[in-house]
Design goal:
There is one protein chain. This protein has 380 residues and is an alpha/beta fold. The protein has two domains: 8-136 and 345-363, ATPase, nucleotide binding domain (Nucleotidyltransferase, domain 5, 2-Layer Sandwich); 167-336, ATPase, nucleotide binding domain (Nucleotidyltransferase, domain 5), CATH 3.30.420.40. It contains 14 helices and eleven strands. The strands form two sheets. Strands 9-8-7-6-10-11 form a six-stranded mixed sheet, with helices on both faces. The protein has a five-stranded mixed sheet with strand order 3-2-1-4-5, with helices on both faces. The site of 5'-O-[(R)-(carboxyoxy)(hydroxy)phosphoryl]adenosine has 19 residues, from helix 5 and helix 6.
Length: 380
């Protein structure tokens, strides 16, 4: 039974380095979507510093929620529910969003909804499909690929509730983490994905023959799950880039580039292009090609292995242009529909959290007063 209200949900996201709040109606209509990024704070460290992240979330949470409510044109009293990311993520960062949402829900006497961040990424796609009145063929095989995650899920809606089965994961680094570490290694900016994305098209992606990554499955794991698992590994590729840099005497050039980029205010990818020789651009292009090859190959193999009717690709790395092109090309040859979120909803945001909360709101699946942050929360 549908609820009698319009389902005006405030979503709050604070799992990593973005403090975000959004108001979404009925899991489809985005009335506001505010994101305060901490990129500038973490950039000098080339990665997220958990203590700094928590402190910034504390500073940002009130103004970000206020801005989301103002832009939506509603007051907190008008809300039907408040949703927050429960996990996975950084403990201190998650706690800020969860505790703030709990406080609001308690004070306003509104239902509180706990959302898994990974489920949120999947719902970024479902949200925009609802806006276009499109249906996603089910079951769908979802690749969630970001700075913290590289996961495959078989997802399906049954009686209004989404169910997820984890069928793949990374055994070491997440794909986005590999982008970030390789960019750092080559003296580029943070986060690394957009830099590598922007520079790769200027290089020869076959120049460095990084081969396919095959991860041996431990027999007991297969026995335990009784189903095929698709395992990713990106740390070897990162080491491959490091070895290449060492054997091709690139260290000095990298330090020159790092120092030059540090002097440019509001530095852009185009500034880095002028500081990259063809050997570096070829290395970048070959690295990106190897990551994308691996993601495409295993995702389609999983989709076929589990008889999925469609593929969803979401998370920060889903913003990558080559990744999108390759998934679309492969989808066309296999007649398998593939869906991505818009670039805005690929990286962390709270509209996806409010959208994932919508089916839970309809089902009356609310969190209790004991809700806390779950840094290692699994999905499926
Ligand atoms: O989803 P997200 O904002 O946060 C996490 O949940 O981790 O993803 C951030 C990650 C970073 O590792 C960033 O380098 C990567 O997404 N990323 C990209 C691109 N844009 C962001 N990776 C490759 N190509 C891009 N265009
Ligand atoms: Zn994310």
């Amino acid at each position: 039974m549908l609820p009698s209200t319009s389902g005006l949900i405030l979503g709050i996201e604070s799992s990593c380095d973005e403090t975000a709040a959004a108001v979404v109606r009925g899991g489809a209509e985005v009335l506001s979507n505010v994101v305060a990024s901490q990129v500038r704070t973490h950039a000098p460290f080339g990665g997220v510093v958990p203590e700094l992240a928590s402190r910034e979330h504390l500073q940002n949470i009130v103004p970000v929620v206020r801005a989301a409510m103002e832009q939506a044109g509603y007051t907190l009293r008008d809300l039907d529910a408040i949703a927050a990311t429960e996990g996975p993520g950084l403990a201190g960062a998650l706690l800020v969003g969860v505790m703030y949402a709990k406080g609001l829900a308690y004070a306003l006497e509104k239902p509180l909804i706990a959302v898994n961040h990974l489920e949120g990424h999947i719902h970024a796609v479902l949200l925009e499909m609802r806006q276009r009145e499109q249906m996603l063929a089910q079951p769908t095989l979802a690749l969630v690929v970001s700075g913290g995650h590289t996961h495959l899920y078989l997802a399906e809606e049954k009686l209004g509730t989404w169910q997820y089965k984890n069928v793949g994961r990374t055994v070491d680094d997440a794909a986005g983490e590999a982008f970030d570490k390789v960019a750092k290694l080559l003296g580029l900016g943070y986060p690394g994905g957009p830099w590598i994305d922007g520079l790769a098209k200027h290089g020869d992606q076959r120049a460095v023959p990084f081969g396919p990554v095959n991860v041996k499955q431990k027999p007991y794991r297969v026995a335990q799950t009784q189903s095929p698992r698709f395992l990713f590994s990106f740390s070897g590729l990162k080491t491959g880039v490091l070895r290449y840099v060492q054997t091709h005497a690139m260290a000095e050039r990298i330090e020159v580039r790092r120092a030059a980029l540090a002097t440019i205010p509001n530095v852009k990818v185009q500034d880095a292009l002028a500081l990259c020789d063809s050997e570096t651009l070829n290395l970048i292009a070959s690295f990106q090609r190897a990551v994308v090859d691996d993601l495409v190959r295993k995702t389609f193999a999983a989709a076929e292995g589990f008889h999925a009717a469609s593929i969803v690709v979401s998370g920060g790395v889903a913003a990558n242009r080559e990744l999108r092109q390759r998934f679309l090309a492969e989808a066309a040859t296999r007649a398998m529909p593939v869906a991505f979120p818009s670039l805005e909803l690929s990286t962390d945001n709270a509209a996806m959290i409010a959208a994932a909360a919508w089916p839970k709101f309809v089902a009356g699946s609310f969190a209790d007063a004991l809700l806390s942050a779950e840094p290692s929360l699994a999905l499926g």
